[in-house]
Amino acid sequence: MKIVSYNVNGIKARMERLLEYLDEQKPDLVCLQELKGADETLPVGDIEKAGYGAVWHGQKGFNGVAVLARGQEPVERQRGLAGDPEDAHSRYIEVELGDLIIASIYLPNGNPQPGPKFDYKLKWMDRLAERARALLAEERPVVLAGDFNVIPNDDDTFSVRAMASDALMQPESRQRYRSLLAQGWTDALRTRFPSGGIWTFWDYQAGCWQRDAGFRIDHLLLSPQAADRLTGAGVDKEYRGRERASDHAPTWVTLR
Questions:
Q1: Is 89 noted as a catalytic residue in this protein?
Q2: What pTM did the predictor assign?
Q3: Which helix (H) or strand (E) holds 127?
Q4: Distance between CA atoms of 157 and 106, rounded to whole angstroms?
Q5: I need a surface site. Which of 4, 47, 67, 166 has the fewest CB within 10 A?
């Protein structure tokens, strides 16, 4: 089973690329982020025509997450995170498919920092940690997949100096990410590439793609029951280089 996390950076703008990816790779589950569209405007028909059932949690203009399942209809379990009734951002959707639980996550960016956006990021990570702890308690195979907007380690970026003041690499962001892992989650990509140097994001500016100046912020975290089934993990980097591509590349795990 191939499970993919893919920040599409606007599903309408990237629809051709997404459908191309689904046709060529035929992933079993795809967690999308940054749809940038309200539910009623999302291209549900095109996705269904491609052979995928879907659960959507859109938002006009920005954010938005979804889970697609090839040849099946995922069952929604939860949308949004508890702990802040005033938070209207569409950043979390959780579904189940058979015995597997999977969540698509679009964590706040947090820039500029310090400031209210960074404070919101940290509080959101605390709320995610609470949900993650509850999911682990179910003792089922669970995958938390998405754009976490955290560069966990120095070797997860092309340049520590260039990213030093960015919210993605602040000690508070990293500490919360490590605390999440310490609950018992496995960072699948890190397990397969322990020395780092593998990127999932390349900015559109400053020739970052051409220079391979990227970093790793898209992660797939596995519960112990899911980690026991892990057979592979990687990044479909080639798709970042196509015309009108997202600035993220599809990032994946395979499970037995």
A1: no
A2: 0.97
A3: helix 116-137
A4: 19
A5: 166
pLDDT of residue 143: 98
Q: Is 111 annotated as a binding residue?
A: no
- Would you say 241 and 202 are in contact if contact means Cβ atoms under 8 Å apart? no
Residues 52 and 22 sit within 8 Å (Cβ to Cβ): yes
142-147 and 100-106: which strand pairing? parallel
- pLDDT tens per residue across span 175-219: 999 999 999 999 999 999 999 999 999 999 999 999 999 999 999
Average pLDDT over residues 234-252: 98
Concerning whether 106 is annotated as a catalytic residue, the answer is: yes
Is 149 strand, coil or helix?
A: coil
Pick 2-255's CATH classification: 3.60.10.10, 3.10.20.30, 3.40.1620.10, 3.50.50.60: 3.60.10.10
Q: Is residue 57 annotated as a catalytic residue, yes or no? A: no
Identify the H or E element spanning 31: strand 29-33
